[in-house]
Structure to design on (299 residues):
């Protein structure tokens, strides 16, 4: 046994102070999750960068990891006294055994089906369908493994609508998954850009592993360069701020695909792009909605 895990349910008012106190009293790490996760009472929390933090969940589960030489109950008692919090009546401790973490992590990720023929497959898995169009992608630091609804929305749009030879810009490329998919689906020139250097490196590595050529444009897309299709899987607020820039890189009569938008944000995002596009919802899923439309002709 290498470590001991301590878990307890805690009122939201004490979460932040108690988590800090546990770290000061020997915890190696602390995390807070929804105590109702996996049930009908699970409560998703979403927050845009720059927005005020939302309240925590109605029921919060605090988990702390300790070295096996530390008594978790004593550490918890000391942490509670330090911040004046009541000591929970119920808590759970369990041993955490050393293991092959690489193998354990890999077991959490398997092939992801986007459509009957399009699959995202980690490098340690075999394609599940003969003749499938496979995007080989391993989980990493950059966003975009294909599991999130917003990535799925963009991939489905590309498969359904991309025409052979069209040029594509993946704006905010993350792992490069959309750019790689576009190339494998028959696009001509495909370019990708991201403000995060680790995302650019991940995109370059993933494109190489998939045997495709993607132009990595850093830090900016050249002024005046147009694409037949622009895909941007970001969040609502960045999309609204970037509306004129994304429009400027979309060829007249070209298409734009936007994702990272919650259902309640659809109207505001559509309004931000209304000068250049008439957007329509595509592939709503799990509270997220994609938007796509054609660039209005220049008059």
């Amino acid at each position: 046994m290498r470590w001991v895990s301590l878990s307890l349910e805690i009122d939201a008012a004490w979460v932040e102070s108690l988590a800090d106190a546990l770290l000061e009293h020997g915890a190696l790490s602390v995390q807070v999750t929804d105590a109702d996760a996996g049930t009908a009472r699970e409560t998703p929390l979403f927050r845009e960068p720059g927005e005020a933090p939302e309240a925590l969940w109605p029921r919060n589960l605090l988990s702390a990891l300790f070295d096996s030489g530390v008594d978790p109950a004593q550490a918890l008692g000391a942490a509670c006294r330090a911040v004046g919090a009541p000591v929970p009546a119920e808590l759970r401790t369990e041993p955490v055994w050393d293991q092959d973490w690489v193998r354990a992590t890999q077991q959490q990720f398997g092939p992801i089906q986007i459509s009957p023929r399009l699959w995202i497959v980690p490098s340690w898995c075999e394609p599940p369908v003969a003749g499938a169009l496979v995007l080989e992608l391993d989980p990493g630091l950059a966003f975009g493994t294909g599991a999130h609804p917003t990535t799925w929305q963009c991939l489905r749009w590309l498969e359904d609508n991309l025409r052979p030879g069209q040029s594509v810009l993946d704006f905010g490329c993350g792992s490069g998954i959309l750019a790689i998919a576009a190339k494998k689906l028959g696009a001509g020139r495909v370019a990708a850009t991201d403000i995060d250097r680790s995302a650019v490196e991940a995109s370059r590595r993933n494109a190489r592993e998939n045997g495709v050529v993607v132009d990595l444009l850093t830090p900016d897309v050249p002024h005046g360069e147009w694409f037949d299709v622009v895909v941007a899987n970001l969040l609502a607020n960045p999309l609204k701020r970037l509306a004129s820039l994304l429009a400027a890189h979309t060829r007249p009569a070209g298409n734009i695909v936007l994702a990272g938008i919650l259902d309640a944000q659809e109207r505001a995002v559509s309004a931000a792009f209304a000068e250049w596009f008439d957007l329509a919802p595509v592939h709503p899923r799990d509270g997220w909605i994609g938007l796509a439309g054609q660039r209005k002709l220049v008059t």
